[in-house]
Design brief:
The protein is α+β, with helices and mostly antiparallel strands and 182 residues long. The chain is built from six helices and seven strands.
């Protein structure tokens, strides 16, 4: 038995507890109305910035709109996620349990996502889409290693973004949800 310990310095074997593939980020196909509304708002902002001679800020706004359109147009590729006895692997990035703080679940774009906060400022939070894995199964696998947060207070930026999305939507709600309400 001592020989086994000498040949293998780690007494614990690394075991894969859960593994799955799912999209790299929550994604929902956008309608033409989303793009038209975004372009109109961008033009209005660009005109205001032009009147105040803020040319660099005009470029920043255009680049942000370009990134938003790219993310809304191109669907994400599937990532491989793996939870092991040593930590979490996302594609080729590995995070030890000591680097992670806690976890919670949130629904974005109609997709359940696991959010894992980190001790380090960067990345700060890992967002993992669950795909066809149930929240309860993931929760039971993670609980021995990380604390679960049932309630996470939204930050000022999240509250502001939700308020803007609610009061100034870029597209109408899906027609299927209107039919169900009728």
């Amino acid at each position: 038995m001592e020989e086994h310990k000498d040949s293998n310095p780690s007494p614990h074997e690394v075991k894969t507890l859960l593994s799955w593939t799912s999209p790299g980020r929550p994604f929902r196909k956008r309608s033409k109305q989303y793009y038209l509304t975004s372009i109109l708002i961008t033009l209005l902002v660009e005109i205001i910035l032009f009147l105040f001679s803020q040319y660099m800020l005009m470029l920043v706004v255009l680049s942000l709109v370009f990134v938003a359109f790219a993310l809304a147009t191109v669907p994400p590729r599937n990532f491989v996620y793996r939870i092991s006895s040593e930590g979490i692997t996302i594609e080729d990035h590995f995070f030890l349990w000591q680097e992670l703080y806690d976890f919670y679940f949130k629904r974005r774009e109609g997709i359940d996502a696991l959010h894992i906060r980190t001790h380090a400022l960067i990345p700060g939070e890992l967002t993992i889409t669950l795909g066809n894995i149930s929240k309860d199964h993931v929760k039971s696998v993670l609980l021995p290693y990380l604390p679960y947060r049932e309630v996470i207070r939204p930050t000022f930026m999240e509250k502001s973004g939700d308020w803007l999305a609610k009061n100034f939507p870029l597209e109408k709600p899906h027609a299927s949800s209107d039919k169900v309400a009728s």
